[in-house]
Specification:
six-stranded parallel β-sheet, binds ligand V47, TIM Barrel, about 400 residues
């Protein structure tokens, strides 16, 4: 029996089996296949070769210090102009309260990003980090996208290196992957004209990696971009990883249209999201981790995505308590999930749930019932054999 009825997918599968790097044309061909299960199987084999049955999750909390932003991105439902009634900027005490709640809920990480707010001095951000670090030294501070770094450098007239150094001195531990959107022009200018361009986003990533920090990368898909835009985005990330090597994780972000200037669009279908997860795993051969972000995918599709190349599942996970941040594709804008529910989703998909810290060290909490293990027994000797056996 052959791997797929899609001849081109079979050829690509052979090359994946041989450990060859896929080209831009291969990425486009992967998207074009109508054999979704075979595409998923191929991504799953690569995922299992790297991680076995392990699926990581992290107990974290998002903190958005301000929603005031001048960037006016067409896809964003979060930002406000300063005069809008629900515009806000947290003072440090407000942020410390969020951190206190996060710690009480067992979080090991705070994910901090916000709007480009020209009313704030740079010291607001360094004070925020240093206060959080002083009060909660156990919390990993994953903060600020490359778009925010670019804004800091221009607006506060500092070199990139100065910005990075001052934030690290204040307590910055790593950076999230936002602001990448879609790199290729003219799409990027059509959806986020006032954000830094792709070269700048990638240049800053290189500088942050050179300073010794790990970062993540994202891609916002399912709006006005083409398949070629997406594959170009993945190839650019792969090239940057070859140069600077500090990306730990890639997160494809499914566009959620309500309350945005693109609310007339539908967002990606389930099939499109699963294809995107699988193509990301196959193209990004130098990224260890591919994350399913359930807040945008929905819990059920995020669970299925674990069979399409994702080895990490993310979104605020809590032991309880009220959360009010952000918006979600889930019914009732549900942006939280208990640890028990998340572990259940992972195990129900036949994977092993492993709690991690931000930099992928395993966390074993006594008595929390997390089953750990490499799952290497389920990994075939070689991916080639697996494909041939099908
Ligand atoms: O850059 C904005 C995206 C990003 C919408 O690094 C939207 O671990 C969908 O980067 N529909 C910010 N997406 C979030 C982000 C992230 C999320 C989870 C984990 C990590 C990580 C990073 O959210 C933005 C943009 O691409 N976004 N608006 C929307 N309407």
């Amino acid at each position: 029996m052959t791997f797929s009825h899609d001849k081109q997918l079979n050829e690509i599968a052979e090359r994946v089996a041989a450990g060859e790097r896929l080209s831009f044309a291969d990425g486009v061909a992967l998207y074009a296949t109508n054999d979704l299960p075979a595409l998923g199987k191929l991504a799953d084999l690569v995922r299992r070769r790297r991680h076995g049955r392990t699926t990581y999750f992290n107990v974290n909390r998002h903190l958005n210090p301000t929603n005031i932003c001048y960037a006016d991105c067409k896809f964003c439902g979060f930002y406000r102009t300063p005069r809008q009634p629900d515009a806000y900027t947290h003072n440090i005490d407000d942020s410390l309260k969020v951190a206190a709640q996060a710690v009480a809920e067992g979080a090991t990480e705070l994910h901090i990003t916000g709007g480009l707010n020209t009313k704030l001095p740079f010291s607001y951000f360094t004070d925020l980090l240093s206060s959080l670090k002083r009060q909660y030294p156990q919390l990993h501070l994953k903060a600020f996208t490359m778009v925010e770094f670019d804004h800091f450098a221009h607006f506060y007239k500092m070199s990139d290196e100065e910005v990075i150094q001052k934030l690290i001195e204040a307590g910055l531990d790593s950076c999230p992957g936002g602001g990448a959107e879609i790199f290729r022009e003219p799409t990027r200018s059509m959806i986020c004209a006032h954000k830094c361009n792709a070269d700048r986003w990638l240049e800053l990533q290189g500088k942050v990696h050179a300073a010794g920090l790990k970062t993540n990368a994202t891609m916002l898909y399912g709006h006005i971009e083409s398949i070629e835009d997406r594959v170009d985005h993945l190839v650019k990330l792969r090239e940057q990883q070859e140069k600077s090597g500090g990306f730990q994780c890639f997160i494809p972000l499914a566009f959620y249209p309500p309350d945005t200037q693109l609310a007339h669009l539908h967002g990606p279908s389930g099939v499109d999201s699963l294809k995107t997860m699988a193509v990301s795993r196959l193209m990004l051969d130098n990224f260890d981790h591919i994350k399913a972000y359930w807040v945008m995918l929905g819990k059920r599709l995020a669970q299925v995505a674990l069979h399409y190349g994702a080895n990490d599942i993310d979104g605020t996970i809590t032991e309880g308590g009220e959360l009010t941040t952000s918006y979600s594709v889930e019914a009732n804008n549900e942006v939280k999930m208990s640890k028990t529910e998340l572990i259940g989703l992972i195990e129900d998909a036949s994977f092993e749930a492993v709690e991690r810290d931000t930099v992928y060290n395993r966390i074993d909490r006594p008595g929390d019932g997390v089953i750990t293990g490499s799952g290497s027994d389920l990994v075939s000797d070689t991916i080639k054999e697996s494909i041939r056996a099908l």
